[in-house]
Description:
homodimer
Amino acid sequence: MENNQTSTNQIIKQIINYWADRNKAVTVFFNKYDDSAYLKEVAQNRSRAIYLLGHLIAVNDGMLPLLGLGEKIFPEFDAIFLSVPDKSVADLPSLTELKQCWEKLNATLANHFNKMTADEWLDRHMSVSPEDFKLDPLRNKLNVLINRTNHQSYHLGQLYLLNA
Amino acid sequence: MENNQTSTNQIIKQIINYWADRNKAVTVFFNKYDDSAYLKEVAQNRSRAIYLLGHLIAVNDGMLPLLGLGEKIFPEFDAIFLSVPDKSVADLPSLTELKQCWEKLNATLANHFNKMTADEWLDRHMSVSPEDFKLDPLRNKLNVLINRTNHQSYHLGQLYLLNA
């Protein structure tokens, strides 16, 4: 390989690009129908689309502390969208509010991702100890991003089932 | 970074590992219930689980020519699982047969993936011309694998909705 630093940076860029692509697909999905459509369940007795948006915000927001980038922006969403399934909480935030949170979070994450170096991406994420990381150097920040990209794809598969 | 060749190889290994992880999750899912459960739709008026297994085989099989690794093993599945939605074809292959195809394909792909070098992963995939690849070097074989990993996650999201 002619230039390995270039290769490493390029692959990291590909992974970030694919994250952004799936992130954008979620944004597009939630701008496709009238707001009322997102109050429907994606399948019978399953989560409503609006809950899945909140869930994606809560999970993606968790990347901030996990990647050592700061505190969560919306820690209050954990109790609504992470700890309990849909329909456990009487009132969810409105779709308008959730879409604003989604945009704010995406801008914050994109800003961080654009600044992170390859060395940072290949360093441990914050829920693995330095000792455990030595034993398994694949438990790095990049792995968190790969995982969360697939998490977006997972719920996109469900959202696309919505009978809007 | 101390050793960039190592970094490049490590990231490629992470991407392959995550592919294998999501691939395994599909295998585990289709060994979880009685065969009859997979004849159900994952959601009302949507694909049956058995169709999605065939669809995943057809799409993953397409990686062989796309990555320049050979011909498809099950080209006959395209007409059943790619060109048409579920319930277009009267008789699908049995679940037993599909699971055997799935295993055979996974072993073939794993064998190839383990042998491919970083240079090969970063080379163009076969549906992009050398000229277009020069303009966008991110259209490489690794991008196909990232995409197909997320495709597995996408349908896993749907499969997990199955009321088995």
